[in-house]
Each structure stands twice: as structure tokens, then as C-alpha cells.
Amino acid sequence: MLLNRRPDATDRLVAFAETVKGKGKKEAKEEETWRQGTVEERLGHAC
């Protein structure tokens, strides 16, 4: 895409972006569930 070697490079990039749109946000929320624990649990997670 950076070199734009194909006439349909932009269309392909947009189509790919639609398939991965929003997938990273779900993982981030799942990883932050430790923040809802007690102080001791949160300190244990930090170690």
C-alpha cells in the first residue's frame, strides 16, 4: 500500500480495515478486569 503498486491498493486496504475494526478494544477491556479487584489483588497483579 505504501508504494501503491496496485491500482486497487486503497480499496483493498479499506476492505481489510473493516475486517479488523474494533477487535483491539475488546482485548483491552478484558485485560483491565484486574482493576476491579481489592487493593491486595491489584498489588498481586502488579508483581
Describe the structure.
There is one protein chain. With 47 residues, this protein is an all-alpha fold. It contains 3 helices and no strands. The longest helix is centred in the first third of the chain and has 12 residues, at 9-20. The mean pLDDT is 79.
Element-by-element helix/strand order = HHH
Could you name the ranges where pLDDT drops below 50 across 5 or more consecutive residues? none
How many β-strands, per DSSP?
0
Overall pLDDT confidence: 79
- The share of residues in helices is 55-70%
What's the alpha carbon Rg, rounded to whole Å?
A: 19 Å
SS strand fraction: under 5%
The number of helices is 3
Structural class: mainly alpha
Cα distance, first to last residue? 42 Å
Shape: rod-shaped
What about the largest sheet?
none
Compact summary:
The chain is mostly helical and 47 residues long. Helices cover 62% and strands 0% of the residues.
